[in-house]
Structure formats: C-alpha cells, structure tokens
Design brief:
Distance between the termini: 37 Å
Number of strands: 7
Helix content: 40-55%
Structural class: alpha/beta
CATH architecture: 3-Layer(aba) Sandwich
Number of domains: 1
Oligomer: single chain
Largest sheet: 7 strands, parallel
CATH class: Alpha Beta
C-alpha cells in the first residue's frame, strides 16, 4: 500500500518540472491526482505519462474563474481534497532599475495572488487533517542580484505557511512550505536570459552549493511526498529547504 493510498491530491503547475515529478510520485504512491497547467498539449502529455487515473484540468492560477472551474470539477468527481500542492509559479529576472510594473504584476499575480486563492478556494473541499504544501524557494532567504521581485514573492509564500498554520489549526490542516534550491527544470529556460548567461549563472550557483550540483525535480517530489503523508503528521509551519546545503551551510 502506498503512502497516499486512497487520497485525492491536487498539484497546480503539474505539467512540467517539479509539479510533474510530484504528480507522478503521488500517483505511484496511490493518490488520485488532479493536475492543472496553462498549456493544454503539455498537460495532456503529462496525464498520459502518469496514468493511474490522473486528471488534467487546464487553467491559470492567476485567473480566479479558472480556479473556480477546477474546484467545481473536483467536487463533482471526488467530493474532497486530501493533499494540495500549490506549486504553480514563474521566475523572471530584472535588476532594480529595470523592474517594470508589468514584471511586478506578472510575478505577484501568479506566485502570490494565484497561490493564495488556490488555497483559499480549496478550503471547503480540504478534509480536516489534510495537508497543504506551498512551493517557495531558497530565494526567500538569499539575496541574489536581479531576483528581487521573484524573491519577494517567495518570501510571501513562506509567510503564508506560518499564518495559515495558525488559522487552520482547529481543522488540524498542516500547512508547510518547500524551498527548493536550484533545480534542473525548464524554468531556467523561461527566465528571459540568453543561453550563455544561463550557463554562467548555473556555474556560479553550483559553486555555492555544498553538494556541488543542481537538484533534480524528483528530489523535490520526495520531500513533497513526505509532507503530504502521515510520515509528517507532526510537521506544520516549516520551510523545508531541499537545496544541497546552499542555505544552511
């Protein structure tokens, strides 16, 4: 029997990277997984890859109507949520002098507003004693140049894990954050940087990691599985760094 046998799990941004790896692992551990993603073709491919009765619902977490549609369908099909992994997010770089209103709004709309309403609108369906996992980042602690707005969004996510743990304590819902370090996912190709600059950035970051490498998406998925399962029954309000020692050393 898997660690999530019989559970209903929602993974936002489940069509690639950390979300896809987590959805695959949750399904392998017995969960019925519902994934969201903005790109229909990628979402359909992810559902096919996962199998195990996975369901894909196209949607953008920054659009509240899409979230309403998601939860209407989840309620009709399953009636409850046991695990919610609020994973959907984006990263773009801009030094302070180059930050625009559009850059700020885009990151906060998806990473903060989208995550907040992903959780808020799920609450009526989340069972008492359920698990909510928020995907933050080591950027909520580090001060990497040109990542100011992105880092601020992830600091907000970490703050939510604290406040929501207090607010949901009477329902015994555990809220925790995961803070990945640099992970080998497609997100690095979507930051608007030239290939050479991405390579240089990666080399510089790797040099700061005690384990000497970027992490893998499946390594974050294993941390999410821990927080989702009864193995973490006494874990609440934490920010779990999965970063090869980057922050803690």
């Amino acid at each position: 029997m898997g660690k999530l046998s019989g559970k209903i799990a929602i993974v936002t941004g489940g069509n690639s990277g950390i979300g896809l790896a987590t959805a695959k692992l949750f399904a392998a551990e017995g969960a019925r997984v519902v994934m969201t993603g903005r790109r229909e073709a990628e979402l359909e491919a992810a559902v096919s890859e996962i199998g195990h009765g996975a369901l894909g619902i196209r949607g953008d977490v920054s659009k509240l109507a899409d979230l309403d549609k998601l939860y209407v369908e989840v309620k009709q099909k399953f009636g409850r949520i046991d695990v919610l992994f609020a994973n959907a997010g984006i990263a773009e770089v801009a030094p302070l002098e180059a930050v625009t209103e559009a850059h700020f709004d885009k990151l906060f709309d998806i990473n903060v507003k989208g995550l907040l309403f992903t959780v808020q609108k799920a609450l009526p369906l989340i069972v008492d004693g359920g698990s909510i996992i928020l995907n933050s980042s080591v950027a909520n602690t580090t001060g990497t140049a040109a990542f100011g707005v992105y880092s601020a969004t992830k600091a907000a996510v970490r703050s939510f894990a604290r406040t929501w743990t207090s607010e949901l304590k009477d329902r015994k819902i555990r809220v925790n954050a995961i803070s990945p370090g640099p992970i080998e996912t497609p997100i690095f190709g979507k930051m608007g940087l030239p290939d050479q600059q991405i390579e240089e950035f990666g080399a510089n970051i790797s040099a700061r990691i005690p384990l000497g490498r970027f992490g893998r998406a499946d390594e974050i998925a294993k941390a999410a599985l821990f927080l989702a399962s009864d193995d973490a029954s006494y874990v609440a309000g934490v920010d779990l760094y999965v970063d090869g020692g980057m922050v803690g050393v």
